[in-house]
Amino acid sequence: MHTDTEVAIHARGLTKSFGGTRVLAGVDLAVPTGSLLALLGPNGSGKTTTVRILTTLLAADSGTATVAGHDVAREPVAVRRAIGLTAQQATVDDLLTGRENLELFSGLYHVGRREARRRTAELLDRFGLGDAADRRVSTYSGGMRRRLDLAASMVAAPRILFLDEPTTGLDPRSRAELWTVIRELLASGTTILLTTQYLEEADQLAARIAVINGGRIVAEDAPDVLKRQIGSERLTLRLSSAADLSHAGAVLSAGGDGGLHLDAGRCELTLALQDPDHLRRALDLLHGAAIAVERVELRTPTLDDVFFELTAAA
After folding, report:
1. Where is the ABC transporter domain positioned along the sequence (predicted)?
2. pLDDT of 190-239, one tens digit each?
């Protein structure tokens, strides 16, 4: 158990409904100070709603939450002073230069003019935007815009940073560059709550991962622990005929195999191996059903496997 001083973000029993739709059904979270927690879940699972409650942009129907030791409902101003937020949509102004954007945000945070100039220059350099500082943001690439957006969230040097799908829409190079910046922020002691739709991103950056589904946290642990919890090796079978895929799934399910994942695009099915003889049993079942297997692959579990298994039932 963590003490209050060790936990930067703490939520207990958060619920939220919109009309007759319940989005959060009792979310519990604890993010230790100086760590990065990745929040994973399908679209509509409650990731962004959780972030909006924790950043005081939305009120929970019930439950409690503290950020930097401040209650988000009773002390919203204190919470906002302690945090930075990078939302899914960039908040920078295309008509201003990168430098002008950061100086504008400094004014919003009531940073003095001299300190604002110093902080702006520091952030532009830190986020690799020094050479483009005096260009309009409308000329920036997607990766540059996201780095500027992240820099804007750091103007007031927040202790806690919320990143809501910060790399959505970026190309692989830009995503990798942003990962480097996030690692540097983490190394400097910043606490980070990251929501992402990229499982590799969570695997690369997070010390712990929480999986949300149906408005509840259904699993939380270190990435390697989550992978081990869902089984040992994964068996992927590529079939010779796409027409056999559904039949193969039915044959293996009838044989006691649960948690099958069918990939129609690749004409593959994947299952967790339960024991050393499982591979032979699966192949025998398919052979008996006259289903031809083109390729057999064994591998260790990935976060994709964790995600599919934990979010299978919406």
Report:
1. 9-239
2. 999 999 878 888 989 999 999 999 999 999 999 888 887 766 678 899 99
Report residue 193 as tokens: 């709550």
CB-CB contact of 149 with 90 (8 Å): yes
Q: How many domains does the chain have?
A: 2
Measuring CA to CA, which residue among 191, 226, 228 is closest to residue 208?
A: 226
Q: What residues pair up with 36 in beta bridges, in sequence order?
A: 192
238 shares a domain with 209 = no
**CA dist., res. 141 & res. 158, Å (int):** 26
H helix intervals, the chain: 47-54, 76-82, 98-108, 113-126, 142-153, 172-187, 199-205, 223-229, 245-254, 278-288, 303-310
Task: Clarify whether residues 260 and 301 are in a common domain.
Answer: yes
pTM metric for this prediction: 0.77
Query: Which of 227, 259, 293 is at the close of a domain?
Result: 227
**What's the CATH number where 244 sits?**
3.30.70.100
